């Protein structure tokens, strides 16, 4: 009987301890949300506590809270208690974020919540706001992406224009980009917006004001349905309220509103297979094609330049030029590729060219055969071919053999009949006058003892240099400096070669600075505006002084190309660029 009583007492005590167990949990309103939605986080406990410490909420901005609520009830004689701290968060960018542990002190013990992982995706079309965003702001503020063509061909230019529409009922005081589209399936080029201009227009039949925030030219690189990601902004909106001041004027309330342009889908058509030339390299647009030479008459060993040029409007940077074919008697060097292309709302326009240097070796006439260039014409929706004229190079003076080498069959070029004469082998001597070489014994010679002892003497040297190498590898700070200096010299090597040539030097240095950013920050040259560079470097926590020096160097490159500059000034800019790249690399 006593044994049963003991077991019953232990069972009731364990049940009481179970019900008295402290619970402290973190709960989120959703684990997957768009970058233009808000997240509610509740830290809930079943017993009263003190010294509550929230996490840092990395990746989010706190837009509301902490709000505290307490629930205390009795049901069937059993007490139920809950205390909650609530926060409302707004994502700062896309990605996977962890809400870290919060702490609370209950009855002298410290309790922690478990970490919660939240996945933030691109903006959703109809954001569900967990903090009741002002309805007036939602209904009177719209970000729209206008696409010029929804059904383009592969490599046909389309334009995306982002417009922010604002109703006269509200006003906007400020905005900033929260999330930018990446255009992963497109070649993209942003059009420089020098000044934002407010214009009057209509949205859904109602009068609105709007401003064009961004213009981007896209060339689709895949066929099928492609998604254009939305641009997302956070906007400070001044909304009128029902309250008035003492003079009868209406009072306004400022609301931070997140707006997105919405996903846009285009259907990219493949180029027709019917009539496609065998040598088609992907050119789409309207083009002219020609092959020219700087001269057609010259002497042997003199040089001339041959240019293969394509001009017009289309995807000029996205296809290869046809290769120049020359007779074997003309020595041909690797071509220099040049691009003079501008991009506007209609797409790319200008010209691209390959410049070949040719050097004839013999006298004679050398025909450069005609070559063809084919492209897809968007106006007629058909393929077109342009063929260049044959060019004959006349080499007036030089060694004989040019006519043979200029033959169109290189395998037979330059062949001559071989004739035998009596003096044909006169350079061979019939009397060799050979002399006996005295034999020497290597064993126990000076060379023998040196070969034997040299490895033993080298052991201390190996130990010394090995220790120095280990010290150098353990010098983390020094290695970082040396690596940064090596990287700076690598990117600026071309600029150093052009010291003294002002134009080429600053072009090479600007290219080096851009290539360095492309390698470090994974951005395209088309996206390298000064504002974007500053923002990206700031996000990487680069020191303000280094960031300002880097941008100043870019401005100096643009300015110095058109103003006189001395060699000493170029040397100073080179040293400054080397120092800034090294400093950036250590911080990045």
Structure description:
- By secondary structure, the protein is of the alpha+beta class.
- It folds into four domains: 21-121, Immunoglobulin-like; 135-268, Immunoglobulin-like (Sandwich), CATH 2.60.40; 284-410, Immunoglobulin-like; 476-587, Up-down Bundle (Four Helix Bundle (Hemerythrin (Met), subunit A)).
- It is 25% helix and 38% strand.
- It has helices at residues 2-19, 135-140, 402-405, 446-474, 476-497, 502-521, 530-539, 544-560, 567-587, and strands at 24-28, 32-34, 39-45, 50-53, 60-75, 78-91, 95-99, 103-106, 109-112, 116-121, 141-147, 158-166, 171-179, 186-191, 198-203, 206-220, 224-228, 232-244, 250-260, 264-268, 284-293, 297-298, 304-314, 330-332, 336-344, 347-360, 364-368, 372-377, 382-387, 391-395.
- Strands 21, 23, 24, 25, 26, 28 and 29 form a seven-stranded mixed β-sheet that branches. Strands 11, 12, 14, 15 and 16 form a five-stranded antiparallel β-sheet that branches.
- Helix 6 runs antiparallel to helix 8 (544-560) and helix 8 (544-560) runs antiparallel to helix 9.
- It starts with a helix and ends with a helix.
